């Protein structure tokens, strides 16, 4: 038996239950209501507009060249324009175009996480984010959340108990994945204050802020931090345009740009050029603004539809959240092990992500995440009915 010379860091490659469900579901041959993946619904992908833009753009040989590592100028300027007036308004020297949000998270950890460093994650947290931190050898410190997002008092206590400052605080501040909660403005202030005190970087992973369908806008963490370089913002077009384009951006202090460029050159040279050009044209043509307005209305209706289905089929056997935007409902089924329930649910024809996947410490065994974005109210009713049958 040959022993291969694996790097020690392979111990930190834990994978993602969410991503693996793409192949698990593709292998099923029966009808399944898919509440598992956090993707826009097929009917929410602006494929006709993208195809028309592709017909214009993708006949040009230059659309297939390498792009500048920091991103194609066409996309960068369209992006700057589309962010004007939003809480994410920024400047060109802060932008790096990435292969989706995941690459932004990878770049952040590559720059700031050494093996053994303490990285704060929310409990529950997005599995992709914790997986990236683990892949760089982080020690995770899981801190409770409540209806207002990360519990900043609990954070202060947890760090005091750990006896050392975290290198990174990883937060999904708006319509959190998976809990759907939003970090309140006072907590945003406090989080930035604590990070300043500890000398920690805040990874501000906020893919859903533009998908608000109720309530009022809150300032981004970067806006709260003013010119302070400690906030590293990761953004993506995966939820607002299409995930398969693998296109996103990092907004970070300009002093980080040379390192980000070097790190990205050692990874993939540049983001996919045809995808960058398509997104650039989508933004510059004003389609994103239109598309977001439609999508917000769709998701508002789908959230309500999913909640109505939960009331109808599960009534007092379950509790669920009421997010003002994003894609997810976080459902608690007291007394039910949702991991154990999963094979029965899949056999009944419904898929979700068990709560435990969102907690490196293995909490939330009685919870699950449902993506409401993918299914219309009728289909959500079928899916939740199947979930009740599996229970
Ligand atoms: N962060 C969060 C909170 C997410 O929900 C997602 C997508 N599920 C990502 C990052 C990854 O985004 P992308 O698909 O653009 O890599």
From TrEMBL:
A GO term for molecular function: transaminase activity
Keywords assigned by UniProt, alphabetized: Aminotransferase, Pyridoxal phosphate, Transferase
SUPFAM superfamilies: PLP-dependent transferases
Keyword set includes Lipid biosynthesis: no
Cofactors named for this entry: pyridoxal 5'-phosphate
InterPro entries xref list: Aminotransferase_I/II_large, Class-I_PLP-dep_aminotransf, PyrdxlP-dep_Trfase, PyrdxlP-dep_Trfase_major, PyrdxlP-dep_Trfase_small
Aminotransferase class I/classII large domain: residues covered: 33-387
Protein name: PLP-dependent aminotransferase family protein
Cross-referenced Pfam families: Aminotran_1_2 (PF00155)
Protein source organism: Actinomycetospora endophytica
């Amino acid at each position: 038996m040959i022993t291969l010379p694996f790097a020690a860091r392979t111990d930190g490659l834990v994978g993602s239950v969410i991503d693996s469900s793409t192949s698990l579901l593709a292998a099923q041959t029966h009808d399944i209501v898919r509440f598992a993946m956090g993707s826009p619904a097929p009917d929410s992908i602006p494929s006709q507009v993208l195809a028309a833009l592709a017909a214009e753009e993708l006949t040009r040989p230059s659309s297939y060249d390498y792009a500048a590592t920091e991103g194609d100028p066409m996309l960068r300027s369209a992006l700057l324009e589309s962010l004007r007036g939003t809480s994410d308004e920024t400047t060109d020297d802060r932008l790096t175009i990435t292969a989706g949000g995941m690459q932004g998270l990878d770049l952040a950890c590559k720059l700031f996480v050494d093996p053994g460093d303490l990285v704060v994650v929310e409990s529950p947290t997005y599995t992709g984010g914790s997986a990236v931190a683990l892949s760089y050898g982080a020690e995770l410190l899981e801190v409770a959340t409540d209806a207002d997002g990360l519990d900043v008092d609990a954070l202060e206590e947890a760090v005091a108990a750990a006896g050392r400052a975290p290198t990174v605080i990883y937060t999904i501040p708006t319509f959190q994945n998976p809990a759907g909660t939003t970090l309140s403005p006072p907590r945003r202030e406090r989080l930035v204050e604590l990070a300043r005190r500890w000398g920690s970087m805040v990874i501000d992973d906020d893919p859903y802020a533009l998908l608000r369908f109720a309530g009022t806008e809150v300032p981004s963490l970067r806006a709260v931090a003013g010119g302070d370089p400690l906030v590293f913002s990761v953004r993506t077009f995966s939820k607002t345009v299409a995930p398969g384009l693998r296109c996103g951006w990092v907004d970070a202090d300009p002093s980080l740009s040379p390192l980000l460029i070097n790190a990205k050159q050692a990874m993939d040279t540049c983001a996919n050029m045809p995808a960058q050009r398509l997104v650039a044209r989508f933004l510059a043509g004003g389609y994103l603004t239109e598309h977001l307005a439609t999508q917000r209305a769709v998701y508002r209706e789908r959230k309500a539809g999913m909640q109505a289905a939960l009331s109808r089929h599960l009534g007092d056997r379950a509790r669920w959240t009421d997010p003002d935007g994003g894609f997810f409902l976080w459902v608690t089924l007291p007394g039910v092990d949702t991991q154990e329930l999963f094979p029965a649910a899949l056999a009944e024809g419904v898929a979700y992500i068990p709560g435990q996947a969102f907690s490196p410490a293995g909490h939330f065994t009685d919870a699950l995440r449902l993506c409401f974005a993918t299914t219309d109210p009728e289909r959500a009713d079928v899916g939740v009915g199947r979930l009740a049958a599996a229970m």
